[in-house]
Amino acid sequence: MRKTIIPAYGLTLALTMALSAAQAASLQEAAKALGVDGVKTLEFSGSGRWFQFGQAPNPNLPWPQFDVSSYLADINYDVPSARVQVTRKQTIEPGRLRPAPVEQKPDLYVSGAQAWNVAPPPNSPPGTAAVATPQPAAVEERLAEIWSTPQGFLKAAFANNAKSEAKGADVEVSFTVGGKYHYIGAINARNQLERVRTWIDNPVLGDTLVETSFGGYKDFGGVQFPARIARTQGGHPVLDLDIASVKLNPPVDITVPQIVASAPPQTVDVKKLADGVFYLTGGTHHSVAIEQRDHVVLVEAPLNEERSRALIGKIAELVPGKPIKYVVSSHLHFDHSGGLRAFADAGATIVTQELDKPYFEKAWAAPRTLNPDLLSKSQKAATFQTYGDKFVLNDGSRSIEIHKIAGSGHADDISLIYLPAEKILIEADVYTPAAPNAPRPTTPNPYSVNLYDNILRLKLDVDQIAALHGPGVVKLADLRAAIGQTTN
Ligand SMILES: [Zn+2]
């Protein structure tokens, strides 16, 4: 027997070439198994659980869970566009006081660079017609959901010159969509796509990992698809579905509504509640600017940097020459804290309940490569002022009290803001005044009942309530009426 001595580099080269062929084969085989070439549109439906991202009742808890009785996704990969219709109901955590769950039926769309929801306006009477509402902040997430389906990922892999490399027993496939969004998938030894990772921007978390895993591939009437889809976003589950049926190439024609294509820019409307106290509305989430002797205190920096820029511009008009020294955050929920970073960049101290500071510090240290914001560019260090139950901002002429709302089921960190001299109470999410023609709820909202209990406990003398959601400022009597407290 003749011995052949293979030089080390020769062996390495031979192995690399063999592996490359296998890797390429595995991407091709995975695509062949899923019939990717013949898939233009796809519909899948199932049931399971959905979790509300960014709405944990405590910074140390996962996103709250909803039971999903029906989930129907229609995708057109060519546009790309998608519609997702969900029927869901919140699962109440043991020991947490929440409103009785009502069935929600969100109807969610994305097409190209537009995203929108179709629903009756919030707090409208029953029977009100559904309208399309632009959701520009949801575009990234919804497109990521299209490319995080097995067929979608493999289509995108071919369209974007994916790279394959061996990772343990798997082949890792990676590519970048639109020069920006990075995707990494894992194909197992059976040529099945097991996992997709991608990142989207979030105003609180920065580059946010969205990880989707697939299990139990089987034939659904002529198309291979996983029987189970699970997704995490920002470190906690957001979706957990058992797939019941899949349709290959159903008609999926999604037209962008005119109202969405021409979405208006941010507007800030002003209502003066007292001398130097300005209620700032115009969008879905309101704020209150309070003029002190030599600075401004802003209550609430909601949504995102775009909203903050609009608020900063309006405050400079209302109170020229005074810096925004403090921004008070009602609670951590992302729709209420997404604009804070812009104010930290502007030099404001963030006043927040002590549960939130460690969360912000960790989240704000994450990379922000997808959408670098003002604070990531300036590299300024954010300053926090925390409190347990109570904090007072007083410049010698006006007092602004911040009280943690005891026992609120909505969030463990949620606080109310109270101006004793002006008898103004500011709160978010625990009491949203109804639209003028809306019927009174048959059951009082427990968050609002709890708010009223806190007003009594703290002996607050309240005249106006500047709610941070809803149609406008109301009186204490309106809160009392909403919870059925019409007499003493
Ligand atoms: Zn909230």
TrEMBL record:
Q: Where is the Metallo-beta-lactamase domain?
A: 284-469
Q: Decide whether keyword Magnesium is in the record.
A: no
The signal sequence is 1-24
Q: Please give the start and end residues of each transmembrane region.
A: none
- Give the record's GO biological process terms: antibiotic catabolic process
Q: Which domain of life is it from?
A: Bacteria
Q: Which SMART domains match?
A: Lactamase_B
UniProt entry keywords in alphabetical sequence: Signal
The record's listing under InterPro entries reads:
Metallo-B-lactamas, NDM-1-like, RibonucZ/Hydroxyglut_hydro
Gene3D superfamilies registered for this protein in UniProt = Ribonuclease Z/Hydroxyacylglutathione hydrolase-like (3.60.15.10)
> PANTHER family, alphabetically?
ACYL-COENZYME A THIOESTERASE MBLAC2, METALLO-BETA-LACTAMASE DOMAIN-CONTAINING
Name of the protein in its database record: Beta-lactamase domain protein
Native source organism of the sequence:
Methylocella silvestris (strain DSM 15510 / CIP 108128 / LMG 27833 / NCIMB 13906 / BL2)
